[in-house]
Amino acid sequence: MRLVTFNINGVNRRLPNLLGWLEQVQPDAVCLQELKAADTQFPAAELEAAGYSAVWVGESRWNGVAILSRIGAPVVTRRRLPGDADDRQARYIEAAVNGVLIGCLYLPNGNPRPGPKFDYKLAWARRLTAHAASLYSTEAPVILCGDYNVVPTDADIYNTRSWKTDALLQPESRAAFHSLLDQGWTDALRERFPHDPPPWTFWSYFREAWSRDAGLRIDHLLLNGLAAERLTDAGVDRAVRGVEGASDHAPAWIDLAD
After folding, report:
1. Max CA-CA distance within the chain?
2. What CATH architecture applies to the domain 2-256?
3. Reduced to 3 states, what is the DSSP secondary structure of residue 179?
4. pLDDT tens readout for residues 131-166
5. Of 42, 194, 213, 219, which has the most beta carbons under 10 Å away?
6. Is the overall model pTM greater than 0.90, yes or no?
7. 36 and 9 in contact (C-beta within 8 Å)?
8. Burial class (CB in 10 A: 0-12, 13-18, 19+), 8
9. Chain centroid to CA 19: how far?
10. From residue 211, how far is each of 149, 203, 204, 205, 214 by CA, in Å?
């Protein structure tokens, strides 16, 4: 089973890119973030024609998450992250696909900091940590994947010099991510690349980041124990970032043994 997380940065704007990549790679399940589309604007029919059933939570201008599957329709278990009934931002969806429980998330960016956006980022991360604790011991493989908007260590960025004040690199952001690892979750890309610099997943549109390979790793796939036992490979489809009209992220993926 190949599971992919991909911040699409506008699902309708990037739809030709997405459909072309799906046809070429044919992943079994895909988690999308930053749909930037209301529920009624989501291209369900086009994805169905490409062989993918989908569940999603949309938002008209920002955010939005979806889970696609070509190996059986996803069965939704949650459409919101628990812990704050007043939070209506479309940042989390959870569904079962072929016996694997998948949480697809888009953690807040947090900039500018300090301020309410950074406070919201940390509060959302605390809610995620609490929910993750309840998921970890589920008697099924569980994957928590998406755009975490966290660079876990200095080894996960081309250079920290221009990013020292950014919310993605702050000690509080990193501590929140490592609190998940402390629960036992396996960082699949780091597991696959334990000694080498892991592959980047994001290159900004600015300052010629792509041509300079000035990348970051902010898209992560975390696996509970049962999922980690089935992990056979992980990587990033880097070339997708170089296609005309591309998202500023590339798809990150894992392979799970049957």
Report:
1. 46
2. 4-Layer Sandwich (3.60)
3. helix
4. 999 999 999 999 999 999 999 999 999 999 999 999
5. 219
6. yes
7. yes
8. buried
9. 18
10. 22, 9, 10, 10, 8
